[in-house]
Amino acid sequence: IAYPDYLRLLPKTELHCHFASTMNAPLFIELADRYGVALRSTDPATLFDFDDLRDFLVAFRAAHDVLRAPDDFARVAYEGVRSAVADGNLRYREYFVNPQYFASRGLAYPDVIDPIIDGLRRAETDYGVGFRVIAAINRRESPESAVEMVRQVLAHPRPEVVGIGQDDLTPEDTEDPARFADAYALAAAHGLLRTAHVAETDRALPSAVRDALEVLDCDRLDHGYRIMDDPALVELALARGVAFTTTPISTTICTGWHLDPSHRIRGMIEAGLTVTVSTDDAMFFRTDLGREYTEGLLEMGVSAETAKRIALNGVDAAWCDDAQKARLR
Ligand code: ES4
Ligand code: ZN
């Protein structure tokens, strides 16, 4: 079997994808049309051309604008699983859901989370793809509203929602994980697991990795590429045994870094860090889990053996129970 075919067929987990970005482009255009949400273009060829992370985030917010009725959420959930199975042999997925985007338009937390879980459960029955949900703190909003979001999660407990993470960025495009210390402490006190988007681009400081581990007490980290700019942080992450979710294709657009053997993700693998691979925003970056492995890992010069290790890392680092992990291995 040819190496790209092997990579595409390898059974995979995905631990880092934003729910709205698992939408298929035709559904995005259909819903935008129904609700009168203006898109930068209705031509899929130009709709998803982004200069950088900030440019992408404008469209990312618009994707949340087209999700309004319970059936919108459930359809995105169900159809997104079907596509991911076909495109990359997805077996298990964790989704970031940002309730704050929807709160601003009058949808309460259960209005969002319940239909999403309904759709994902139906997809699990039909396609055998397990899942968990991670409530995402909107980094554009205040630390107080992040605490309020965690309170909502705790007030409407669902066993599928196992942790908190983040999305979006400050208007200044800066990262300061410690801003959300209170929200993370509240989550930890109630048994929610914790991850954080850190050190994703040249605009972020490597020290965000330290803050996420030492101030937010994160169990996992998202992106974190600039850890490679500070060897002391690599030692810290190795000592903590923390896993990283990396997103090769989204990173080429958000950072402008090329996928070659000198890429920081390859460096993270060589340094012995626990690396996993995800799509981040499949619709927007016109990617899928198969492409992340075939193009992303191949172009960084990752061997077949290491690719398989990465797929298994995705099982080890998952936030599901051990019985489910055993089935995934
Ligand atoms: C992202 Cl900061 C952020 N939020 C949502 N999606 C993303 N993809 C890359 N960075
Ligand atoms: Zn992300």
Commentary on this structure:
The chain has 329 residues and is of the alpha/beta class. It has a single domain, classed as TIM Barrel, CATH 3.20.20.140. Helix content is 50%, strand content 15%. The protein has helices spanning 3-9, 25-35, 44-47, 53-65, 70-88, 99-103, 109-127, 143-155, 181-189, 207-214, 231-240, 248-255, 264-270, 289-299, 304-316, 322-328; strands spanning 12-18, 90-97, 130-138, 161-167, 193-198, 220-223, 243-246, 274-277. The chain is globular, with a radius of gyration of 18 Å. The two termini are 21 Å apart. The structure holds 6-chloro-9H-purine and zinc ion. Its EC number is 3.5.4.2. Residues 11-329 form the Adenosine deaminase domain.
Low-confidence stretches: none
Q: Output mean pLDDT.
A: 96
- The portion of residues assigned to helices is 40-55%
| Strand order, largest beta sheet | 1-2-3-4-5-6-7-8
How many structural domains does the protein architecture include? 1
- The assigned structural class equals alpha/beta
CATH class: Alpha Beta
The CATH architecture is: Alpha-Beta Barrel
* Number of strand elements: 8
Q: Helix tally?
A: 16
CATH superfamily: Metal-dependent hydrolases
